[in-house]
Amino acid sequence: MRSRYLVALLLAISTTAQAAPPPVVVPSYDSYQSWFVACDNVLRCVAKGVSEAYAGAEIDIERDGGPRGKLSLAISADQPFAIGDIAIDGKAAALSGSDWSVESADGVTTAASNALPAIRRLVAKLRNGSKLTLGGKSEVSLDGLAAAVLRFDERQHRIGGVTAIAKPGPLPASRVPASPPLPRVPYRRITATLKAGESARLIAATRTDQKAVFKQEDCQTDLTNMEPEAHALSENQALVFIPCIMGAYQSSSLAFIVPRAGGPAKRLVLPRPYRGNDPQRSGTTYFTNVDFDPKRGMLSTSAKGRALADCGMTASWIWNGGAFVIASMQLQQTCGGVEAGDWPTIFRSAQE
Question: Within a domain: residue 279?
Answer without folding.
Answer: yes
